[in-house]
Design goal:
This protein has 10 helices and 16 strands. The protein is of the alpha+beta class. Bound molecules: flavin mononucleotide.
Length: about 350
């Protein structure tokens, strides 16, 4: 089983992750992980924090001379803006954030105690973990990518930029839609036998857990609702050497919670950023007086970054499913298992 835990606050000393379950014998270069971290910090509409945090990982365990040992991989990302004990308290919860529910749940009188961990800063650790999973998947020809297809209703890149500029001028924020594509998958990852082994459900959970993500669809998704079955199910063909294949991919690569050999395609919606420079109505949690929500340093739009995070979360889930099917303690054993299976399915 592949698993990870993360720790760290937005303005604490740093972010930590422990990734466990990767086999021995995989070359992992820190620069590859840093590249993914950099991608997470870019994109249309990102805020000033992104210029402060030039994220870099330090791998502190699990590798020798850059090769995995099969032991847990410890990852550290230092925060450059580590002022958690000096920052002022926050008392007016922002609608759309964990601020109010978090303060009520944990009994805090300072909302900073909530937002320090609820902030999307935590996703840097997830990207570092996912980046290592991507390196693992690449050994088997599996690639994960993402693409922004809509920001604030605009689908042409120039118009997306203009829409973000407009939002900035109006002191407002935007969300949008991105796609994640996973290519090079063999049929047979995941399982239909239990609800929690279905790969569609596992991917959905991983992606919807990214802050700000509100909807996800696989393949044709909501489009299925308008069609006859005969129009949308992907007919099956076979050719010697190629094996089974489809000419369409409305299923988005998954049938019965199992990969069918076609690329996995997810479409994901992110809501507009919740921190507004012209804040909505809120209530001071100490005085209970009405006022405006607090203002924190914030992005205007983070759809592209969310796409990068989703890629890396998907890489983790697919690597986990891959290890379930072909898993062993070393890369060479897994390669042998994988090649044997590929030969068998044609
Ligand atoms: C990459 C990324 C950056 C984000 N940046 C901000 C931000 O600057 N300000 C903000 O209010 N929300 C930001 N969000 C969204 C919030 O973290 C999220 O809306 C909030 O934690 C509440 O969670 P929920 O929207 O999933 O309910 C960001 C999300 C992501 C994925």
């Amino acid at each position: 089983m592949l698993r990870f835990l993360t720790a760290g606050e937005s303005h604490g000393q740093g972010l930590l992750a422990i990734l466990e379950g990767l086999p021995a014998g995989l070359r992992v270069e820190e620069e590859r992980i840093n590249l993914e971290l950099r991608r997470r910090q870019l994109g249309i509409g990102r805020g000033p924090r992104m210029n402060i945090e030039k994220d870099k990982v330090q791998i502190i365990s699990g590798l020798k001379k850059g090769i995995t040992l099969g032991s847990p991989i410890g990852i550290l990302i230092q925060n450059r803006d580590a002022r958690i004990d000096k920052l002022p308290g926050v008392f007016s919860p922002r609608p759309g954030h964990a601020d109010l529910s978090g303060a009520l749940k944990y009994g805090f009188s300072d909302i900073r105690n909530v937002l320090e961990r609820a902030s999307a800063r935590e996703t840097a650790s997830r990207v570092a973990v996912g980046a290592i999973c991507k390196i693992f998947l690449e050994v088997f020809g599996i690639a994960v990518s993402s693409n922004t297809i809509n920001i604030g209703g605009k689908t042409v890149v120039e118009e997306m930029f203009n829409q973000v500029k407009l939002a900035q001028m109006k002191k407002d924020t935007l969300g949008g839609i991105f796609e994640v594509l996973i290519e090079g998958l063999p049929a047979g990852l995941g399982s239909y036998v239990h609800w929690d082994r279905r790969l569609d459900g596992r991917l959905a959970q991983a992606v919807i857990s990214i802050p700000g993500i509100k909807a996800i669809e696989f393949g044709l998704g909501f489009g299925y609702a308008e069609c006859f079955g005969s129009q949308v199910h992907d007919a099956i063909y076979y050719r010697k050497g190629k094996g089974y294949y489809r000419r369409t991919n409305n299923a988005g690569g998954l049938e019965g919670g199992v990969t069918n050999g076609e690329p996995i395609l997810l479409r994901v919606c992110m809501k507009p950023i919740a921190t507004l420079k012209q804040p909505l109505d809120s209530v001071n949690i100490l005085s209970k007086k009405s006022g405006k929500a607090s203002i924190q340093r914030a992005d205007i739009c983070a759809v592209e970054a969310a796409g990068v995070i989703a890629e890396n979360m998907c890489a983790f889930v697919v690597a986990d499913a891959f290890l379930e099917k072909f898993g062993a303690d070393s890369i060479s054993e897994i390669k042998a298992n994988y090649l044997n299976y590929r030969k068998k399915i044609g």
